């Protein structure tokens, strides 16, 4: 049997310390935690930084270092620093060294770096080793070399290699969410289908249980399957909560693709062992003919300036869409007249916050609020141009009337100056897989004794 303790869905979200202590007392074979994802957009990968506060990351990571030492097991993090670039692996390595020094401990640390050389990936495109995933954008060598950062998603094989160094702590760059959990059970010969399925269920900690915010989860793997055991006092797993997690961030509730193969849970059976734990057997792992890893790349899409105004006059709130539509037409004409720019040279969005800024045309119902926020997003080729276009928008958001017959209204800016330069805006531009001859070909493993 292999016990994997998962403190939470991601480092930086905090965890139930009492539940973690119960997990440590159960003597896990490994503590695994995710460090990030693409959930918050491409900027973090584009800039190579973490979305989580350093202070929060350090406090939680220090607690997990102590927990792993108390349990006598390795501590593994995947997708370190949100995006898993080399810079965020180094960022967490520095935090780890600080924590060890403050605790008076020493440790062997393995780093798994996943960042890719753009020229190498462009060459892989030429040789046919790069393949698009469904709905992937069209790319060429210029697209690839224009990326600020490209990472490959490591699988279980790369995590196994890191653990085989005898590391107490593994800091991995971009990994699949499941790899850090599945690696040790697979390496020990536990049921392969159960290893991958249990890893998928456990990837977000207690999100597969009745108290998802508690975070802490123990998954026990063996020769036939796995058992899910949430450890917070108020958390319970049921067959329904466990199976439901196969739907999380997955287009198919029965099939999950990973480096080296795919998981099929069509024949899996879920059994409640008691009012807290769920047993799962019958999952199947299918080995692929070739080994491939997914690539993620982000590039600068432009530079942005934003403005915000609030509208409270009921006449304007009730006719807000017509108002912003008119502003966009008049603003575009002014940009063309004053700056000589056409629609293809920049973009301007006016989002009605509090009305339909989230769902847009998918919004249901016709409820008019008391007031609306108007968010203007200007994107242009450089920051100076974006700011100038934003300044041309300024008078419209402050005084533009619905009709010529109306008195000039006055709305409200919450900030002065109203134009706020956001800097570079990024976009994901790779949704492809890279075929490898050896699982370690795209990855670099280092060992540090600290």
Walk me through this protein's architecture.
The model has no long low-confidence stretch (mean pLDDT 95). The protein contains 13 helices and 19 strands. A hairpin with a 2-residue loop joins β10 (255-258) and β11. The chain has helices spanning 17-25, 43-47, 54-71, 86-103, 118-126, 141-145, 156-163, 179-187, 192-202, 239-244, 314-318, 320-339, 383-399, and strands spanning 2-6, 30-34, 75-78, 108-113, 130-132, 149-152, 169-172, 217-221, 225-230, 255-258, 261-264, 269-272, 278-281, 284-287, 291-311, 346-353, 372-380, 420-436, 444-449. The protein is α+β, with helices and mostly antiparallel strands and 450 residues long. The two termini are 31 Å apart. The strands form 3 sheets. Strands 12-13-9-8-1-2-3-7-4-19 form a 10-stranded mixed sheet, sandwiched between helices. Strands 5, 6, 15, 16, 17 and 18 form a 6-stranded antiparallel sheet that branches. It has a 3-stranded antiparallel sheet with strand order 10-11-14, with helices on one face. It is 31% helix and 27% strand. It has 2 domains: 2-297 and 430-449, no CATH class; 313-411, no CATH class. The radius of gyration is 25 Å and the shape is globular.
Instruction: Provide the β-strand percentage band.
Output: 25-35%
Shape: globular
Content-based structural category: alpha+beta
Low-confidence runs (pLDDT<50, min 5 residues)?
Answer: none
C-alpha termini separation = 31 Å
pLDDT averaged over residues: 95
Number of discrete helical segments: 13
The radius of gyration is: 25 Å
Helix content percent band = 25-40%
- Described by its quaternary structure, the protein is single chain
Strand order of the largest sheet: 12-13-9-8-1-2-3-7-4-19
The biggest beta sheet, please?
10 strands, mixed
- Total beta-strand segments: 19
Number of self-contained structural domains: 2
